[in-house]
Amino acid sequence: MRAAVVDVLGGGFALQDVDLAEPVGREVLVEVRASGLCHTDLTVATHAFADFPPPVVLGHEVAGVVTAVGPDARAFTPGDHVVGCLVQWCGECPACLDGRVYQCGRPGTTLRDPGRDGPRLSRDGRPLTQGMGLGGFAERALVHENQLTSVPRRLPFPQAALLGCGVLTGAGSVLNGARVLPGETVAVIGAGGVGLNAVGAARIAGASRVVAVDVRDGTLRRARAFGATDVVNSATTDAVAAVRELTGGGVRHAFDIVGVAATTEQALRMTAPGGGVYVVGLAAGGGDLRLSLPRLLLEQKRIQGLIMGAGNPRRDIPRYADLYLRGHLNLDDLVSRRIALDGIDAGYAALQDPEVARVVVTSF
Questions:
Q1: Pick from 112, 111, 95: which is nearest to 103 by CA?
Q2: Nearest Cα to 252, choosing from 178, 147, 335?
Q3: Dist. CA 264–CA 245, nearest whole Å
């Protein structure tokens, strides 16, 4: 089959012929119909990560059709429409049994034993790394069934692909992590793909004020279409002062989608006493956050890191699919461009355009 392979860090995505094994155990073979371009894959393709050494096939926002299942798979049958998710969960550890699959203590159980079963992906007899257990920048993907969720057949594949990462993370941070209530106020710092989903979820939750903060006017214009009541360009305006003025002293919930020390500090300062700051993104390097313990205590604020929107894919992905199909969750405006499998490098370049929210591979 054809796949986009990263052979050298920073060397881009090259379309090549690779070999894909037959499903064993609880594995499911998926014909990929859509695969979203997430910045996380670009980071892995350009920076050294011990878990994902090149040559590697990336792509973790996957939607497609089940074509075969392993002998022990029970959740799917051929013909099912599915969405992949990078959350790898065993289903048996204390966290999984408590519903916190995003905190699974044994994620490696979703991977096959290459010494016993051989690699899932190979080229010329040599194994290829499968990014995040998915490897969706390819015509087909061989995935443990726990990393897949069924979705309705009428759900378009490009929109479905975004559910497993950008939507799960952005919307889940608001609905699961912060549990925003009707009438509360929200600030979202960073209005890219994940941030737009946070904005949309805050609107669904009934927030009275949703302030989007970004450095690009084009991105902020799009945020209004997703439900932002106010926008602030932090490149030209004191974002903290603007948010505090708009909300009469600060928001109840501030979401840092960017993930650098400066934006987290902004989030803390634009949050009202008793409010919460949620670190959702992590930019390259991240940095160290300096806190004033007296202020943290006296202002009674909380800071929480959120992974994958504190999401349970089997619970949340169908929920978001239903919200989209009923017209409550805007996924159509997230799909800015559709490209072919050999256009991934150009697709990532297009994401630099503030008018482009998400790029999705739809031609394989």
A1: 95
A2: 178
A3: 19
**Which residue in this structure is represented by tokens 């929920």?**
319
Compute φ and ψ for 48, nearest 5 degrees.
-75, 125
pLDDT per residue over 115-158, tens digit each?
Answer: 899 999 999 999 999 999 999 999 999 999 999 999 999 999 99
Q: What's the number of domains the chain is made of?
A: 2
Secondary element (H or E) of residue 111: none
- Contact predicate 242/220, CB 8 Å: no
Buried b (16+ CB within 10 A) or exposed e, 77-91: eeebbbbbbbbbbbe
Coil vs helix vs strand at 159: helix
pTM over 0.90, yes/no: yes
Spatial distance between the Cα atoms of 331 and 316, rounded to a whole number of angstroms: 15
Range(s) of the domain holding residue 34: 2-150+331-363
Sequence-separated contacts (24+) of 236-239 with Cβ below 8 Å: 239/189, 239/213, 239/266, 239/270
Q: Do 46 and 10 form a contact (C-beta atoms < 8 A)? A: yes
Do both 88 and 12 map to the same domain? yes
298, 347: one domain = no
182-206 residue pLDDT tens: 999 999 999 999 999 999 999 999 9
CB 202 within 8 A of CB 210: yes
| 8 shares its domain with 120 | yes
Q: Decide: helix, strand or coil at residue 276.
A: strand
